[in-house]
């Protein structure tokens, strides 16, 4: 076996390194999906919660409490999160660290979170901001979606007491809303 030759390229299943690492990440994610410690965390932390479906015929269903936002969710919202994120797998040098962070874990390395917190944690990790900041960013993005149109957004910001709200444009509208959320929560 040649140590210098890459596994991708002509005559192989992968056109290039990108394709190969996509394949490898897929394989390892599958290993994570069925990781017995992950499944154990899910099983041990689930509990009966009030059925959030008003039309449901059972008063309680299986759910869990998110370890980040401390709200209760139904089990299908559960994500087992690595406290120390697995990071990226883009080159040979990433393999060992990625596999270790992803699979070389005990229950203490994992936490059960809701999908919203999971994506906030991923955003925080990716952009280097805190979890609280990432939550505010996500909330602001959602706010922009619900309140479409610059005029409407400016009017709301003005009503919330944002100075010079009517002159805001582009990204500054989102930033102003993030700042508003921050002041509302008492500068976390
Ligand atoms: Zn949560």
Task: Explain what this protein looks like in three dimensions.
- The protein is an alpha+beta fold.
- The protein is built from seven helices and five strands.
- It has helices spanning 17-33, 36-45, 95-103, 115-127, 131-146, 150-159, 171-184; strands at 47-50, 60-65, 72-74, 78-82, 110-114.
- Helix 5 (131-146) crosses helix 7 (171-184).
- The site of zinc ion has 8 residues, from strand 5 and helix 4.
- Residues 66, 68-69, 71, 113-114, 116-117 line the site of zinc ion.
Question: What descriptive keywords fit this protein?
Answer:
5 strands; 188 residues; 7 helices; binds zinc ion; 2 domains; alpha+beta; two-stranded antiparallel ribbon; 3-stranded antiparallel sheet
A few lines on this structure:
By secondary structure, the protein is an alpha+beta fold.
Which helices and strands appear, and what pairs or packs with what?
Blueprint: H1 17-33, H2 36-45, E1 47-50, E2 60-65, E3 72-74, E4 78-82, H3 95-103, E5 110-114, H4 115-127, H5 131-146, H6 150-159, H7 171-184
Antiparallel strand pairs: 1-2, 2-3, 4-5
Helix pairs in contact: 4-5, 5-7, 6-7
The protein binds zinc ion (ZN).
Largest sheet: 3 strands, antiparallel
- Rg computed from alpha carbons, rounded to a whole number of angstroms: 22 Å
Give a list of the ligands: zinc ion
What's the tally of helices?
7
Beta-strand share of residues: 5-15%
**Portion of residues in helices?**
40-55%
Q: What is the SS-derived class?
A: alpha+beta
Q: What is the N-to-C order of secondary-structure elements (H for helix, E for strand)?
A: HHEEEEHEHHHH
Distance between the termini: 55 Å
Order of strands, widest sheet: 1-2-3
Total strands:
5
Mean pLDDT: 94
Instruction: Sum up the overall morphology in one term.
Output: extended
Low-confidence stretches: none
> How many structural domains?
2
């Amino acid at each position: 076996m040649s140590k210098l030759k890459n596994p991708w390229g002509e005559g192989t299943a992968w056109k290039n390194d990108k394709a190969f690492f996509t394949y490898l990440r897929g394989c390892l994610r599958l290993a994570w999906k069925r990781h017995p410690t992950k499944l154990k965390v899910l099983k041990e932390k689930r509990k009966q919660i009030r059925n959030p479906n008003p039309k449901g015929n059972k008063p309680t269903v299986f759910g869990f409490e998110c370890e980040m936002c401390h709200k209760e969710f139904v089990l299908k919202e559960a994500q087992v999160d690595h406290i120390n994120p697995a990071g990226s797998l883009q080159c040979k040098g990433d393999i060992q660290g990625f596999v270790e962070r992803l699979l070389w874990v005990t229950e203490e390395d994992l936490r059960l979170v809701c999908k919203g917190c999971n994506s906030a944690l991923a955003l925080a990790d990716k952009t280097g901001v805190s979890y609280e900041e990432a939550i505010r960013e996500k909330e602001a993005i959602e706010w922009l979606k619900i309140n479409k149109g610059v005029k409407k957004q400016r009017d709301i910001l003005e009503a919330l007491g944002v100075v010079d709200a009517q002159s805001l444009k582009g990204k500054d509208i989102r930033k102003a809303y993030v700042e508003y959320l921050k002041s509302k929560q008492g500068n976390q």
